[in-house]
Amino acid sequence: MNVGLKILAALAVSLGPFAAGLSKGYMSPAIASMQDPHHKNASFTVSDQQASWIASLSLLGALIGGILGGVVMRYGRRSILLAAALPYTLAWVATAFSTSVDMISATSFCGGMLVCCITMITQVYITEIAVPEIRGCLSSVSKILSQIGILISYSLGAYLNWQQLAFVVATAPILLFLALLFIPETPSSLFLRGKEEEAADSLQWLRGPDSDIRQELATIRTNILASKQYHNGRAGKLKVLLSKRLTRPVLITCGLMFFQRFTGAHVFSFYAVPMFKKTFRMMNPHGGAIATSAVQLLASCLSGMLIDNVGRLPLLMISGVMMSIALAGYGSYAYYMTIFMNSTDLTQTEPGAYDWIPLICVLTFTIAFSLGISPISSLLIGELFPLEYRSTGSALATSFSHLCGFVNVKTAADIQDHIGLYGLFWLYAGISVLCLLFVVLFVPETKGREIDEMDPKYVESLCINR
């Protein structure tokens, strides 16, 4: 079996998450640039509240994009990625030419809607083309490219203003569009639309020209036909939504998405530079953001090597423990800075003597987040949902995820005003502890499990669940 072609296809669609990473990394240096009074080309000023709206509206757009992606996914994974790529470039070009807060807020919303479609469908595409032995690794490829995108934005953001950086982000969807021209649609998607000959050609391309695909093709054909009959036999939308085959994966994936969003990761992503300015006394905030992104990239690479060998659950549990400790530590340091900022002991110390403490806490959190809950929660969306509910389930989980992200990013500044930066991160630490309990009690291990259309026992499971 030719593994190289599957990797090539995964790399091609992972240019979507790369574009998403560029956009995620854009916000932190861009907001700092928009609020910089020395920015020569500034045609408008941005307050803290306006900055929170600009950052959070991309997530509100992603909420709509998750629903839209679930609806249009039935028309093909590759086809929708092609359709979304160039409009996403146009959204970033419009961002670069924005002349008001309202305009940049609108482009942020539209960009978030498009990039959510891209990232959600990318995960489904990778899940459908991969064999179980390397599915976790291939899924991590998209996370790694996303982290590379964040690192590039943070690094360039130290030298470019927000308009110049927007033009850089605009190039990534063009690369995605060009790469998609050279890879096939997923066999599962083609079978679902009745295109059996094209599905066979796609599977042959993915498995290699010398591979015997007859048995795998027959299994996929049988399972998809059974799935269609099962789905058509379910009377009414309400009965479909209440099916155990849908509700259990929805509750698990939405639970993981809630914890992923409310453990502070998005606050670090969107407000890294402004936040480091509040806790660093001497260290360059841009340098801290770049170091964080570089560590996140290395942790994503490590996760890719471990996820198919160690399993999903051990990594999730390690992630929960490390995040709790790191967030509690950062909150404690912020409390220390708040209480003792003007004390004699602190003023007599060398400026910047304690800057390493918050940096270590953030780096530890970043490693824990990138090692476990970040890649695995996305991977489980593709693995847990049955074939007949994959579009619906992916849309529900992804939309819920971005709703949580919007609420978290928009309210972080308000919560900080009421309970302080230290209170905000102690809250996140408590949520991380609950995340650990949730993983232990409810999340199943999916290491080595076949997805439905490739599972020889899938038809039997449909009969049992009727």
UniProtKB/TrEMBL annotation:
| Protein topology in the membrane | Multi-pass membrane protein
Q: List the SUPFAM superfamilies.
A: MFS general substrate transporter
Listed A to Z, the keywords are: Cell membrane, Glycoprotein, Membrane, Sugar transport, Transmembrane, Transmembrane helix, Transport
Q: Which GO terms describe its molecular function?
A: transmembrane transporter activity
Residue span, Major facilitator superfamily (MFS) profile domain? 9-447
Question: What's an example GO cellular component term for this entry?
Answer: plasma membrane
Q: Which InterPro entries match?
A: MFS_dom, MFS_sugar_transport-like, MFS_trans_sf, MFS_Trehalose_Transporter, Sugar/inositol_transpt
Entry's transmembrane regions: 51-73, 80-97, 103-126, 138-159, 165-183, 285-307, 314-336, 356-381, 419-443
Compartments in which it is found: Cell membrane
The main location is membrane
The domain of life is Eukaryota
Which Pfam families does the entry mention? Sugar_tr
Gene3D superfamilies (alphabetical)? MFS general substrate transporter like domains
Name of the featured protein = Facilitated trehalose transporter Tret1
